[in-house]
Amino acid sequence: MTRITLITGGARSGKSRLAEAETLALCRARQRPLYIATAEPGDAEMTARIAEHRARRGLEWDDLHAPLDLALALDASDGRGPRLVDCLTLWLSNLMLGGHDIDAATNALLDALSCQRDPVVIVTNEVGLGIVPDNALARAFRDAAGFLNQRVAGAADRVALVACGLPLCLKGAPLTQAKDQP
User: Fold this and answer.
1) Which is catalytic among the residues 7, 24, 33, 53?
2) How would DSSP label each residue in 10-44?
3) What is the Cα–Cα distance from 22 to 11, expressed in whole angstroms?
4) Distances 123 to 15, 30, 132, 138, 143 between C-alpha atoms, Å
5) Is 138 annotated as a binding residue?
6) 180 is in an annotated binding site
7) How far, rounded to the nearest angstrom, does the alpha carbon of residue 170 sit from its chain's CA centroid?
8) Residue ranges of the domains in the chain?
9) 4-177 carries CATH number 3.40.50.300
10) Selection from 146, 135, 156 nearest residue 85 by Cα
11) What share of the chain is helix, strand, coil (3-state, %, to 5)?
12) What pLDDT is recorded for position 5?
């Protein structure tokens, strides 16, 4: 069984929708999927995005807010069924803006992922396809996100890149829901 699935893509590419469908497909009878959210509702626009995601998922999901300690959230929730982490790049932003040790947090995440019994579907943003940012913080974020994505992709059983709502399998078996896409 696939334990770790990484789904990446650009903004509004459809990656979260596909990740939600994939997580639901991994549930067995009477299991409730768990949505591990890393977003912080720091302003009205982000609060609206969070509400949009919650409304789309509906009431069949349980939610866990984990803006910083993703490894702890995964370890604490293992054994309860499939989990969806959305998303690594918001988690990275939280770490960077809080002055946390990114390497230590990444290593803890990878250690946690290596021992998960239940499936984990992880969403991340592909941020390296655009122009080079014009400021040091944006360049540092882009570089850190690229390295984080590479490390998590290396640990994942499956990796898919989503563009225009369509997944392209990069590693492992195609997404379960890919056959249902237009």
Assistant:
1) 53
2) STTSSHHHHHHHHHHHH--TTPPPEEEE-----SH
3) 19
4) 7, 24, 23, 20, 18
5) no
6) no
7) 16
8) 4-177
9) yes
10) 156
11) 45, 20, 35
12) 97
Q: Is 53 a catalytic residue?
A: yes
Q: Using CA atoms of 91, 92, 96, 102 in order, give the dihedral in degrees to the nearest 10.
A: 110
Q: Which of 144, 141, 138, 74 is nearest to 103 (CA)?
A: 144
Low-confidence residues of the chain: pLDDT under 70: 1-2, 177-182
If DSSP codes are grouped into helix, strand and coil, which group holds residue 161?
strand
Q: How many CA atoms lie within 13 A of 97 on its CB side?
A: 12
Q: Is 99 annotated for ligand binding?
A: no
Q: Are 23 and 121 in contact (CB under 8 A)?
A: yes
Dihedral sign for Cα atoms in the order 159, 38, 41, 132: negative
pTM of model > 0.70: yes
